[in-house]
């Protein structure tokens, strides 16, 4: 009988798949059902806490209401938002389908081992878009729609397939029934994956004895003397490349006090980066050239050169590691985008990696930028045993309830799309008249405006529609609009010919006269009051001042024009008189000359002003010739003075 307390103590530290405790390994049994369970990470060690300190920020919300998934940090929240599960639920909600929980989504994906959206790519880099993710998601959405509406297309029937989950789940006789242990499917070969019944025996055969720590650390070149099972891991994207050869046998390091610590043994590693990604716009330069043609700029030329140099550097590293790569147990590769895949798997002399190699695996979880630290984190994630604690009875009940709901015929009725209310003929005519009248008033087309009003029998009380429109809030009537645009001719025509009401107020409680902005428009209202008479409208309510005839308005305008002309004439005459006085005073001023010939009291000109006077009217070529002659004469004078000395 296995001690339960001892087994619980074992689960408190990370469990390395290739070096499991014998007591735990002896009690393992494969689960008979392939029901996936929620993963529960073991308690992290102090080293893990230090490595994850930068990603342990507290999230503002710890629950995704759409997917019903909780998370404890910002990093987990970001990973979930980029995951296929979240993207699928968003698209399903837009199509009117019910979202799937994480377990249901994994079962629906079925045969997929890798991420269907390329989510294993970097957080910060931007890769070339590929169509596989969208195609798979679309196919899954169509399949779910067909399952929810089986009567729509009875001919399309698919045989159920056995899903391949990314994790094999095991149970132990020394653990409670609600606890399970998981191992990633990717660390097994294709033959071993096809025999899940012999999973425990396979794990026992994979156990490796730890080795003592080496005195020298890992280098960029593989150690020829290194032996034993090992795996190859590499990531490429956004100009970043990282590769590593890791031994599967753990390495024993002795800490202070003689405590043994098992760590991963890195045989060789290599990382480098080149500028190949177009900043802010994203994507590689080769992808941009293929889609929009080759650009001719310094940046594009530099990126093309760096892409070629990056490809050469990567292939040189692979060639140097060929012997170790050929003997590796598995090859974990992350290369999203056509350019990156061509770099690794393209046809070239001395090709190392091949697309059809059965050892090639993808990372079955999200990864970040290609660095040595990210490769080591991925290695630990792949080779550590997962611990899950879940109530299988509750899962079975939920699964039964889901199947029962799926078996029921769909009673959901598609929600009708909101339609715009149909307008009557009167409303359509009012909208047409509004647009035509506003256009004519804005352009001050008085004859066309009067003709349109007469031909369409538009009443004098007509108001623009719709009344709640922002443009009709301030100017609800044609007279308001004409006054607001300061169009006196239109105002006169509307008042005297169309019979518009000057007492109408807008939504601000203002009459058309109160919207006027110049004197001519205000005079148009006063002239209309004189012509129409005091009994026509309540002019006091319209806020229109006392009436004035057109003759009086014209005579006043003429007087104002003449007064302005006289004022301008007086100003010009005063200016001319002042100039004449200044000229006379200047001419009467006595001019005395010194012996040197300069006039006393005259302002002496500078050398620059004299040169400007000399070159005035000359072309640039003539000025250059004159300047050369002046400099030549000055040089001759200097030579003469030097000889005289």
From TrEMBL:
Location of region: Disordered: 114-134, 275-301, 397-426, 544-645
Any one GO molecular-function label of the UniProt entry: hydrolase activity
Coiled-coil parts of chain: none
Catalytic site positions: 285
Record's compositionally biased regions (Low complexity): 286-301
Biased composition (Basic and acidic residues): 399-408, 551-588, 606-645
Compartment(s) where it occurs, according to its Swiss-Prot or TrEMBL record: Cytoplasm
Membrane-spanning ranges: none
Record key words, sorted: ANK repeat, Coiled coil, Cytoplasm, Endonuclease, Hydrolase, Nuclease, Repeat
VLRF1 domain residues: 227-385
A cellular-component GO term for this protein: cytoplasm
UniProt-listed SUPFAM superfamilies: Ankyrin repeat
GO annotation (BP), single: ERAD pathway
Domain notes: The VLRF1 domain mediates binding to the 60S ribosomal subunit.
Similarity comment: family membership: Belongs to the ANKZF1/VMS1 family.
PANTHER family noted in UniProt: ANKYRIN REPEAT AND ZINC FINGER DOMAIN-CONTAINING PROTEIN 1, TRNA ENDONUCLEASE ANKZF1
Name of the protein: VLRF1 domain-containing protein
Biological classification of the source: Eukaryota, Fungi, Dikarya, Ascomycota, Pezizomycotina
